[in-house]
Amino acid sequence: MSWFKRKTKGITTTTEEKKDTPKGLWYKSPTGKIVDTEELEKNYYVSPEDGYHVRIGSREYFEILFDDNKFKELDANLESKDPLKFEDTKKYPDRLKAAQKKTKLKDAVRCAVGKSKGKELVVACMDFAFIGGSMGSVVGEKIARAADYALKNKLPLMVISKSGGARMMEAAFSLMQLAKTSVKLAQLADAQLPYISLCTDPTTGGTTASFAMLGDINIAEPGALIGFAGPRIVRDTTGKELPEGFQTSEFLLEHGFLDFITLRKELKDKVNKYLDLILNQPLRK
Amino acid sequence: MEYLEFELPIKELEDQLTKCKVIGEESDVDVSETCKQIEKKLAVAQKEIYKNLSPWQRVQLSRHPDRPYTLDHIRAICGDTFLELHGDRSFKDDKAMIGGLGKIGDQSFMFIGQQKGFNTKTRQYRNFGMANPEGYRKALRLMKSAEKFGIPVVTLLDTPGAYPGLEAEERGQGEAIARNILEMTRLKVPIITIIIGEGASGGALGIGVGDRVYMLENTWYSVISPESCSSILWRSWEYKEQAAEALKLTAADMKKQKLIDGIIKEPLGGAHRDREKTFKSVSDTIVKCYDELKNLSPKDLVSQRMDKYAQMGVYKD
């Protein structure tokens, strides 16, 4: 019975060499569909069976939008301060540190310039993982600087919103970022540079009350929550049951606040098609 | 006169004083000495209470039921010259947002502001000063009309927030506020903004982007109300006082943060204690601000306003 005997002691096969082993990372969509993460990644982080658009961050959006994932990040080192010495159940600097450690991000937005279908595009993309994608001074300033970069280099700007709203821990400073980012969008408009706003899940509060709704075109991913007041607040205030699909992308399209809804895999094509059309350029393949 | 909880010691003394005076009038007893004593005590109590108001107490004063509201200010400042204008030209006339033309001296101004009611019926009529999208669109229509004719704009802010209603969402509350903020950054006439009560978040800023922004002494201005902040960050409504403290939302705090240009002093005890004096201070501030702005070219005016807002924020580079 020698085939029961090990010739060498212990398990020597490395994990990488093992075949067909479960990676232990599956994604379950809200409708209950199970997807292998690798497959999900190949499918633009969209669940193939039910079309559910999984929440992703700036890393993934940059990969989707920029050719060969090549881009130059702008103002990567901007970080939040604590101007109000804000403390609730936690101190704000502690919250920031914890968020930075968890997400490996500096704050809730990353901005970059790179080629998309061969032409340069400035993209500011929010990261929901960082304190709910909340907008404080850093988010405002980085978007403002991204707009400045677009102005200086005569490039179109795209902002990808994914945010619960303004960051409470910077109170009125956060509120004023609505005005600050709007100033820059007004300057872009005066310079006739296109600005595209992509609303993703979720886009609520202060972002909706500023740059998310101010695009030359406002577009969205399917099924995203988009609104000013969150659904819970609306229900609590009005005491009414919310209709099916309230505050989804489809609801906003129906009520006239979006130009169109795009699947993530068509995002790059559609954005560049719009830019070619509005700038009266030949359509890129 | 209604009293807030922390004002009760004052109410007690004021009641005593009234009683004392009545006794003096109705009998032969000489009460002048007693009255004087009470008056002295009252002055001390008032000083002590009103000079050391906590942020939460100021929030309460900003919502005092006797506090003058937007139309009270405008009618007092402009008198018969005020002409109210209605409607957003696409959906309806929002009663929570009022506007119209009026004169201070020889100069016409376009006044815009959120309006609260003074009793249950009018509070409902005014939707508690919470405007719907059509309110913000009405405000923008009036601002554009003012711009067309070179008329300066005065906005008076007093709102617990934009209305978080179902229909408000359907009609694009976020878009309406966003559009106003953007258009106000580049409006070619002077904009003077005064927070006369509550300045709650986007609902306030939606008519609040100004060349000059002033706050009355007992008002607040922030990204969220202390109650909502408490419920989100502390997960309970009980921490509103701490939240009011943490948000640094008083006029003095906002001035220190350089997010507003100045504070308008209120009479001791709040704007409602001497309404005429309050109206005069507000009117004087409008005139002073307009004098500072009226000779700027539209180009300089807009670029200064844009620079001011572009600089707001604190971060590490």
TrEMBL record, chain A:
It comes from the Bacteria. The keyword Transferase applies. Its EC number is 2.1.3.15. Keywords: ATP-binding, Cytoplasm, Fatty acid biosynthesis, Fatty acid metabolism, Lipid biosynthesis, Lipid metabolism, Nucleotide-binding, Transferase. GO terms for cellular component: acetyl-CoA carboxylase complex. The keyword Magnesium does not apply. Coiled coil: none annotated. GO terms for biological process: fatty acid biosynthetic process; malonyl-CoA biosynthetic process. It is found in: Cytoplasm. Its main location: cytoplasm. Pathway: Lipid metabolism; malonyl-CoA biosynthesis; malonyl-CoA from acetyl-CoA: step 1/1. GO terms for molecular function: acetyl-CoA carboxylase activity; ATP binding; carboxyl- or carbamoyltransferase activity. Residues 24-285 form the CoA carboxyltransferase N-terminal domain. InterPro entries: AcCoA_carboxyl_beta, Acetyl_CoA_COase_Trfase_b_su, ClpP/crotonase-like_dom_sf, COA_CT_N. PROSITE patterns: COA_CT_NTER (PS50980). It catalyses: N(6)-carboxybiotinyl-L-lysyl-[protein] + acetyl-CoA = N(6)-biotinyl-L-lysyl-[protein] + malonyl-CoA. Acetyl-CoA carboxylase is a heterohexamer composed of biotin carboxyl carrier protein (AccB), biotin carboxylase (AccC) and two subunits each of ACCase subunit alpha (AccA) and ACCase subunit beta (AccD). Belongs to the AccD/PCCB family. NCBIfam families: accD. PANTHER family: ACETYL-COENZYME A CARBOXYLASE CARBOXYL TRANSFERASE SUBUNIT BETA, CHLOROPLASTIC (PTHR42995:SF5). This is Acetyl-coenzyme A carboxylase carboxyl transferase subunit beta. It comes from Algibacter luteus.
From TrEMBL, chain B:
Belongs to the AccA family. Acetyl-CoA carboxylase is a heterohexamer composed of biotin carboxyl carrier protein (AccB), biotin carboxylase (AccC) and two subunits each of ACCase subunit alpha (AccA) and ACCase subunit beta (AccD). The keyword ATP-binding applies. Keywords: ATP-binding, Cytoplasm, Fatty acid biosynthesis, Fatty acid metabolism, Lipid biosynthesis, Lipid metabolism, Nucleotide-binding, Transferase. InterPro entries: Acetyl_CoA_COase_a_su, ClpP/crotonase-like_dom_sf, COA_CT_C. One of its GO terms (molecular function) is carboxyl- or carbamoyltransferase activity. Residues 37-292 form the CoA carboxyltransferase C-terminal domain. It comes from Algibacter luteus. It is found in: Cytoplasm. Its main location: cytoplasm. The gene is accA. Pathway: Lipid metabolism; malonyl-CoA biosynthesis; malonyl-CoA from acetyl-CoA: step 1/1. This is Acetyl-coenzyme A carboxylase carboxyl transferase subunit alpha. The lineage of its organism: Bacteria, Pseudomonadati, Bacteroidota, Flavobacteriia, Flavobacteriales.
